[in-house]
Amino acid sequence: MNRSILIAAAIAVGVTGWIVSGQFDNPEGNMAAAALPPADADASAIAEALRPKRTAPTAVKVELSTGQAQAQKIVVRGVTEAVRSVDVKAETPGRVAAIYVELGQRVKKGDILVKFAIKDRKAQLAEAEALVRQRKIEYKAAKALNKKGFSAKTTLAGAKALLDSALAKAEAVRILLDDLIIRAPFDGIIEARQAEIGDYIKDGGLIVSIVDENPFLVIGQIAEVFVNKIKVGDTGVAKLVTGETVTGTIRFISKASDPATRTFRVELLVNNDDLSLRAGITAETTFSADKVMAHFISPGILTLNDEGMLGVRSVDETDTVRFHPIQVLTDSNNGAWVTGLPSQIDLIKVGQEFVRAGEKVSPQEMTAKVE
């Protein structure tokens, strides 16, 4: 049962009460003329006849309701989303020589995805390593001569610089060779594959797309009136349109609202150990905010005042009817938890549609049912 059903029920009860009151409120109304004294009666008799007759206060049944601390439920609608999704791109241009993954295949961090053709890269490495060996010999000889005093320190420094340069060049070629092997950056599933054997991939070209499956996110937009009622680390329960229910913790709440909707992004981090969750599934997430004083009432006693506000009627210590606007926290087929009422209140359970705020009534106590 949602809020709209509760309001509809209250309106239906109000209309019924209005119809009944119109028919039976003054059953002797049509006999008013017959009750008047004859035309020749004196003024005192006429005044007495026209004076409104006193009627007994309307009898209503009331029940003492005591509030209880209830956690406020905040419902946010959104979708599931992968915690991270990466398009793996080439760091160096090359032709695809081998592909080791297919669509939907799960991979581990470091697994080889694609290899590019090596071509002359190994020859470049062999040349660089040969130069390193030569520079090492030259530096060793310069160091020995300098130690014996046969060469200047500048000669030794020059030999050392040439050796360092050769080492750096060799390392650069090794990195270039390593870039020809594309590896998985993290555990995940292959969501898309843009490369095929024989394709020439330019520097920065797409190769595969990987989605991290565990953990997962349930994201949504929370209204500004509720954003300060939750915090990072709070628990949330998400019900997916596919039928699953998952529990997680809030990992992020946006500090800036969406300019168009004035809502804030909230992310619920959930475990996906069985890898059953998919991105883009509609979800309804419920967060529990701080506890508030609430009363559990039957939808049948809900009513509307003259301004159209949803609320309930009660009787105070002077037997006077009072109207109380309420807010619905949660509702079900058995009743609704509402806020906006004092901690203890005598709610009108029967006859609320036949009285108005400010009217004196004759209350009769009812025994409260244990909910």
Query: Any idea how many domains?
Result: 2
Percent in strands: 35-45%
Cross-sheet strand order for the largest sheet: 2-11-14-13-12-15
CATH architecture of the largest domain: Beta Barrel
Shape: elongated
Give helix and strand order, one letter per element, not per position. Answer: HHHEEEEEEHHEEEEEEEEEEEEEEEE
Walkthrough of the structure:
This protein is an alpha+beta fold and 371 residues long. The chain has 2 domains: 238 residues, Efflux pump adaptor protein, beta barrel domain (Elongation Factor Tu (Ef-tu), domain 3, Beta Barrel), CATH 2.40.30; 94 residues. 24% of the residues lie in helices and 38% in strands. The chain has 5 helices and 22 strands. A 6-stranded antiparallel β-barrel has the order 2-11-14-13-12-15. It has a 4-stranded antiparallel sheet with strand order 3-10-8-5, with no helix packed on it. It has a 4-stranded antiparallel sheet with strand order 7-6-4-9. Helix 4 runs antiparallel to helix 5. The longest helix is centred in the middle third of the chain and has 28 residues. It is elongated and about 150 Å long.
